[in-house]
Design brief:
By secondary structure, this protein is α+β, with helices and mostly antiparallel strands. The chain contains five helices and eight strands; from the N terminus they run αββαββαββββαα. It has one domain. Strands 1, 2, 5, 6, 7 and 8 form a six-stranded antiparallel beta sheet that branches. It has a two-stranded antiparallel sheet with strand order 3-4. The longest helix has 26 residues.
Length: about 240
């Protein structure tokens, strides 16, 4: 078991680490291109056609790992602050954070509930900024990659070729007339699959709804704790009596 002075000694460092981690993750969520990628492969229309290299952009981050990092950072900080606040206040001004009969935080003191409410608002802001899957694309989960994948799309690759168009056949009396025309000819197809590590809109909506409920539960617990009976502590007369006596 740790001592209260040990908890207080490390709290500042834990808060600083958490703040840096969350700030870095928040900046990351503002770069949706890092959560998206694709694989593009070329097929010529015949074996003699030109062969082109595969094009690929790798998905660098996915929401599950971002949320896991956020969870780890906030968990460490909340545990430190809770340990300090639980050990630093009188036992009467406490209340539990409860949702649907499930106690998430038991007998929390008011200072910790005030801290928790502020941190949950920050988490709410973080969740609101998470990049979402493009709703214009049909996505399925690729369990092997741990990413969302689109249906394969095929696009045509063309090349311009020149042909001679005979306008007038030659005869014994006339040389004939022709001109060169340019037309587009299909030479192959690109097959493209998009990948994403973003969050589905429905999942994000559910997370936002849950954080709203959690914040409301913390507010309710805070009000309950603030309504607790406390003993009046009379120290003023002793202090001022000594000072002015």
């Amino acid at each position: 078991m740790e001592k209260l002075n040990q908890i207080v000694a490390v709290e500042k460092g834990v808060r600083a680490r958490t703040q840096k981690t969350i700030t870095d993750l928040h900046h990351l969520t503002k770069k949706p291109l890092l959560f998206n990628g694709f694989v593009r492969q070329y097929e010529p229309v015949n074996a003699e056609g030109e062969h082109l290299d595969e094009e690929r952009t790798k998905v660098q981050f996915d929401i599950s790992s971002v949320l896991q990092s956020m969870r780890h950072a906030f968990t460490e900080q909340m545990d430190i602050v809770a340990s300090k606040d639980y050990g630093n206040v009188q036992p009467t001004a406490r209340a539990s954070v409860e949702i649907d009969g499930v106690v998430l935080v038991k007998d929390a003191p008011v200072p910790f509930l005030l801290y928790l409410e502020k941190e949950l608002v920050d988490i709410q802001t973080f969740i609101n900024a998470l990049p979402e899957l493009d709703i214009a694309t049909d996505w399925t989960k690729n369990e092997q990659l741990g990413l969302w994948a689109s249906r394969e799309a095929r696009t045509v690759r063309t090349q311009k070729v020149q042909d001679k168009l005979v306008l007038l056949e030659p005869t014994t009396e006339h040389p004939g007339k022709a001109e060169i025309i340019t037309r587009d000819v299909t030479v192959g197809h690109w097959r493209t699959t998009k990948y994403s590590g973003a969050i589905p809109l429905r999942a994000k909506t559910d997370l936002v709804a849950k954080i709203h409920r959690l914040i409301d539960a913390v507010k309710k617990a805070r009000e309950t704790a603030n309504n607790a009976d406390v003993a009046r502590i009379n120290v003023g007369d002793n202090i001022l009596g000594w000072l002015l006596g």
